[in-house]
Every structure is written in structure tokens, then in C-alpha cells.
Amino acid sequence: MTDLDGRPIAETATAVIRNPVLPGFHPDPSILRVGADYYIATSTFEWYPGVRVHHSTDLVSWRPLGGVLTERRLLDLTGTADSCGVWAPSLTYADGLFHLVYTDVATFAGGYWDPQNYLVTAPSMAGPWSDPVVLHGRGFDASLFHDEDGTTWMLSMRADWRPGRNRFAGISAQRYDRRHRRLTGPEHVIFEGTDAGLTEAPNIYHKDGWYYLVTAEGGTTWTHQVTVARSRQLLGDYQVDPAGPLLTSAGRPDLALQKAGHGSLVQTPAGEWYLAHLVGRPYAPSDRCVLGRETALQQVDWPTGAWPRIRDSVPAEQVAAPSGTAVTSGPPAPQTDKDHFEGTTLSADWSTLRRPAAPDWVDLAARPSHLRIHGGQSPMARHRPSLVARRVTARRCTFEATCESEPRSFRQLAGITAYYNSRNWYYLHMTADDDGGVVLDVLACDSGRVTTVQDVRVPLGAVRRVGLRARLDGPALTFAWTTEPGSGWHEVGRTFDATTLSDEYAATAAPGEPEAWGFTGAFVGLWVQDLGAEGGYADFDQATYRTD
């Protein structure tokens, strides 16, 4: 018996959690239980809806609910740079309300982040969500801790922009007044971190008379870790667990799950503990992670008065599910999602780039069972792109769509893309040549340099409706097309490097400072440009995503 990536799965008589539970781009998890319901909120960066949420009742099976920040009233990503936007949300519950804290990061150049923190609340995950409360901008990875005495505290990493200083200058805490919806009192620096450095992502848990502070350290890459410290008082003095990190993959290139860190704890109704955390799955040791940073769960042993422990302090590909969970009969079947666009809104699997899915450019009503996408700006623009995409969740997968378009010039393009960010993507599209003839072509963008792929152009003659396909087979990406669905596919004839669609490839280094960071993972999607703003659009009457 093997999983979707061909790895052996040991047969067992107990229910298991198979990691990652949220495959593909789902980083920085914040896990919460309310009654019998579990929720995980994850970062979304420059993508709408902001803060993606999944729901479960057993920690094994997770259902996407979509995102919380669905409109510009709650989040404005206009002009947001690659891998900026929504970082590290925190989901908590108090006073009968869900509390969601999130950071909108403006930059990370030159030692600055310009992080602005916000809080929204709602009586249910379906909303309605309140107008955002503006919190401080002193750092990112903010969270709320609701203490047993009725007080609430806002935590965050403390950013120090000054040259030569530690940019991750500890963890700060400040009272938050839930009644008046504002911060109050002084800022307290409660923890300065360990020698691992880059201390961030604080969460506090009160257990057995101790305040346990859980942080992420080592940077969100191969040296990532979860650090635990504790104190009898909320404001410290915090002492670090002498046994070392609660969880890390550092120094273990043999592990399938790498980059383990950024943890959040949850307790089951039966008193069992689990840690939600991010991981990456490189195609080879220390290789690129095309699927981005994903969410996994680990079982935690936490005896009364003792430190929490994870077996061997490393991430496991499968762990025991909570007691009483129904046993399943092996790994999940390959996934097939086919969308005929028959609803009034996009399904929870879709995301849109830098602007919410509004009817002025995402139209599900103009033509029955079709998605009409009105063309937007160029692939490099950060204000009005027209990209509707979904996360790549498996090393081997296929994305197909049927596109109908009438391009009138080279300024109008429509098709499918394998996309990482504005600087790294591939694009199979319909467009018009200088003589007005409609052609099928491929563009590639590598670190910001756009090229037309040679010797793949296909004249379409009178054809205006084509099937388009992108297939990822590990590091290999191929495209194909057909004018008669069911009659066979025509390969484009080139194999592309899928690993350019990864965090590692996107992170180009400049002396002393990354020129660009990559945090988002690969997408496949539907893309339309109308560079002359002349009314160009395309209709898609189906899109299928399938894992092999």
C-alpha cells in the first residue's frame, strides 16, 4: 500500500492522520477547537480570499471553507508585492465570537516590513465579519491569548529595522480590551529567543499553573523549529525547555517532511494534544519544494506539569488520530475536481490574485455554466490582474480547462498557467498574431525575464474554442491542447522545469539581504489579459484538477 507520492503506508488497525493534512500552499497554521469542530487558518499572502480556513471534526479529514477576507473592506491587496500581504493569521474564540488577527505586510526590503495588524470578529466562521480593528504595526505573526482571568493579550514578534540590530528583537505582549476593542497599557518584551534566532509566531497556553510560550525559530526553511518556554507569570521570566526544540527537521535530510516549524497547539475533548505546523516536501534532500509550505499535525504527549513532547522531536508522515476516530481503509483515493461553473460564486478551491472575485471581472452569470473572465493587466502588474487559480497539491497532477476566446490583437491573451509569482510562471494561451490570425503560444517567465517559447506556436485558423492541459510530473511540466475534446491531446513538445515554481527558486539573494523571498507555493489557473483595456474576455466552461 502506498500514498499518492508512491511512499509505503503501513497498514494499521487504528485511525491515522496522514501528513500533510493540508497539502499544497497552506503555511503558518493556526488551529482552534470550538466544541466538536476544529478549524485551521493559514496564510494567503497576495491571494484572495485572505486567510484560508479548513474545518474538521476528527483531525483526519479536512474540508475547505474558503477564506475570511473576501472583500476590500476587510483587506486591500492592490499593488501588494510578491509574498507580501497576509502573513500568519491567528484564530481564537471568546465571548461567543471568533477572533481573527492577521498581518498585512507591505514590504521586506532593506530591513523593513511595514506590518499592519488587524482584528476581525464574527459569531460563526461563515460571518458576518466585523470591520477590522487596527492594532499595532510593531511586528508580524500576531496572536491573541485569552487568559482565565478574563484578560486578553496581543502577542507578536518585535521588529527592529535599525541597521546592525537584531531584526527579530523578541516577543512582545500588550493588553487588548475586548469590550472597547483596543490595545491598552504598555508593551512588554517577554522573550528574546534562543541562539536559533529569528524568533517569531508566538502562542501562549495556560496549563497546570504554567504559561507555555510556543514560538517559531530558525527561519522558515531547512533550520526551522518549534521552541517552547514556560513561566509561572504571563509576562515572564520564561525558561526554555532544556531538551531543545519541540519539533524540527533540521539536520535530518532523510525525512520526507522538512522545514518543520511555526506550531499551534490544540486539545481534543478527550484531553489529547496535537500540534499543527508547517512543513515542506522537497523532491530530493535539500531540493526545491514546488508544493510550497504545507500544514501537518503531530501527536503531543503532555503529562501534568511536564514539558510537551513529540516523538523524537521530528515530523512523522502519519500519526495516531484522536481516540474514538473511525478507522479508514487505507490512503485516500486520487483526487478529481471538475468545475462546470454552475454556481453563483467560485468554489472554495479557487483563489484570485490581488483583487477579490467581483462581478466586474469574474462573471458567472453572463453565460450559463461558464466562467467569464474579463481581461486584466499584464502578468507583471500588481493592481488589476485577472487570474483565477488553485493550489498544486501533489507532485503528479493534471489541470485541464476549455477556453473560448476571440482575441483581436497581441494585446489580448487567454489560457492556463502554472504560476508561482509575478516573476516565475508558464502560460499556454490563445492570442492574435500581427496578421490577425489566432494562434496558440507559450510564454515563460524566469526570475522576471519573459520569453516566447520557440517552435511551439500553433495556428488555430477559425477555431476559437480549445482544450488546454498542464501536467506536473515531479520536476517536469508539460502542456497540451485539443480542438476536439475526446479526440486526443496534442503535446506542445517541450518539457519545462516545474521547480522554478518554488519558494527556494524565488528567493534570490543580494549582498546581506534577500532581494526577493518566496512564501507561496505553485498554482495552476485560468488567466486573461486585455493590455489595451479594449473589452477582451474569455469564457471557460469547465476546469478539472486531478491528482495521479
What does the model show?
It is a single chain. This protein is mostly beta strands and 548 residues long. The chain has one helix and 41 strands. Strands 4, 25, 28, 30, 31, 32, 33, 34 and 40 form a nine-stranded antiparallel β-sheet that branches. Strand 7 (85-94) and strand 8 form a beta hairpin. The protein starts with 15 loop residues before the first strand and ends with a strand. Mean pLDDT is 94; it is low at 6-12.
Number of helices: 1
Distance between the termini: 15 Å
Into which percentage range does the β-strand content fall? over 45%
The dominant shape is: globular
Average predicted local confidence, pLDDT: 94
Unreliable spans are: 6-12
What's the gyration radius in Å? 23 Å
| Oligomeric state of the chains in view | single chain
The major β-sheet equals: 9 strands, antiparallel
Number of strands: 41
Q: Determine the structural class based on helices, strands and strand pairing.
A: mainly beta
Helical percent range?
under 10%
What are its keywords?
9-stranded antiparallel β-sheet; 548 residues; 8-stranded antiparallel β-sheet; 1 helix; mainly beta
